Amino acid sequence: MLTFTLRRLLLAIPTLLFISLIIFLILDLAPSDPTASLPLTIPPEVRAEIRASLGLDEPMVVRFALWLQQFFINEPLNLLEQWTGLSFGDGDRTRVISWQTRSPVVDIIAQRMPQTLWVVGTSYVVGILIAVPIGVISAYRQYSWFDQIGTFVSMLGFSVPTFFTGVLFIVIFSVQLGWFPSVYDTTHVVTDWASFVVQLKQIIMPVMVLGLYNASQISRFMRASMLDNLNQDYVRTARAKGMTERVVVLIHVLRNSMIPVVTVIALGVPQVFGGAIITEQVFKVNGLGQLLIVAIQSGDIPTVQTLTFIFAVLIVLFNLIADVLYGVLDPRIRYD
Amino acid sequence: MTDLANVNEQQGYRAPRNQWWDVWDQFKTHKGALFGLGFFVFMLLFVYVGPYLWPIDATYIDIRARNQGASWAHPMGADQLGRDTLARMMAGGRTSIAVGLTAMALSLLLGTFVGVIAGYFKKLDGPLMRLTDLFLALPLLPLLLVIIMLFRDTLRSTFGPENGIFILIVFVIGITSWMQAARIVRGDVLALKEREFVLAAKSIGTPSHRMITRHVLPNVMSPIMVSATLGIANAIITESALSFLGLGFPSDYPTWGRLLFDGTEWLQRNPERVIWPGLAISLTVLSVNYIGDGLRDALDPRIRGR
Question: Full-prediction pTM beyond 0.90?
Fold first, then answer.
């Protein structure tokens, strides 16, 4: 198991390098000029100086190597210094600088991270909490009215895009009923009960929109996996031993059915971050997704590159976690 | 000596039937799938035949009707410039469904090609599957946004504002969604290669290209058809999401996603401007997903005929 994990970790390095190269090439070979949005009155020689100050006059290989060094060596060292208080080297390292704000990209991401994590994390937990019981009951009472409604609702939740549910929620709950605010206020600080209620009110719509979408996907897997296990021989044995139905379903079958579902949950994490891009846009949450959209629209290549690469790291990381989890949870699977 | 026809009659001989009749019989038993098929056909008629029955042009500006609610002249209301929403829904649906179908066709073509080649030729299996894994590890939505942003203007000036963006969106959706189909097809081809009829065909000296077109491809049609339906749903949702983020089609070339995006600014005044396109996207995707579910059951020989 350990050797497998190590091997996968080592294999992840060339994959990530290759992905970073692809992202770099797409951004670099694109026929768009970062100085194109500047006023036309700027004389060409000044424009050339602006390009030089952005580091664009270096050859492509140099810029790619520089970005790699900044992202993989300088930024982690900076983070380590901040966390431990130690200092490595002279501390004078070049950082990935945003073209929009001229401040380090990693700092901006660190500012935006909590909002995204709150919304995305809560919605994923809510989604799992809704999906697992629904999947279990649907499978246990297959073809009952509960199962029929459950599968229909999950099909619906799976088909209706989040940008429509989000807007629909705003129309119903903000415009018509006036219960919840339609804009997520990230400067709000929870200090007492009243402010906690305000926070709850503003977070409930984005969380429900994303949560329902995740729940509909996970509950389909949960139901299918429970159905696979319910007809197995060991279930009949457990019943024949005289165990109560509750123990059979909730201990024997559920634990075995959770194996594929847990890996699906792990694999879904990066997709949820991607889906959060849309939800953040609907509810005006200024998280990572909104940062990406703004950076794309203003042609801020270092920010786009770093953010996209972070999404790629998330995907590779959670793929690895899912594989390892599968081996840990299911003793029948041995990678070595 | 017994008469052959007599025996057949006694045993209730059934005329040989085409496989696709059996598939259709099984498909008919799935109510959701039948309903989905009906709705999808209705949508196709709505967007392609509808404009002949509803004569108002999608770009015709009737400024007196601006921001109007539903009326007999404009059953779905009109937008802030007085353009008829029903006509724009038809025009938008035409683009959305066309994007869905072409992007699906492109991704299936790529996916099937990679899957068949990887499954059939052992030497190419490793590299092609590594490539597939690599594509699966790419953050697709951010990359789609980046590619569209960067290449939009160039393509627009080359192919014209409408075709340029259409080609770009179909292309990017196609090349980022072929991986699932490739994996499924490869798995099926690997299993097929062990079957006797393939061995028999090989032993009489069938060349590879004919093996693939005559024996392998017809037998992997069912997973391809199921991925096709899911591919349409996926492409329609992706296109709408891109348009919704403001990076898809321009406002004067509407799609359902773009109509929804334009409608969000008028949410308080005319909520129906958001609801109609949203409903159209959701119901179309839902119906396509149900068709996929029904097809999966109908094409599975273990379920069929029971």
Answer: no
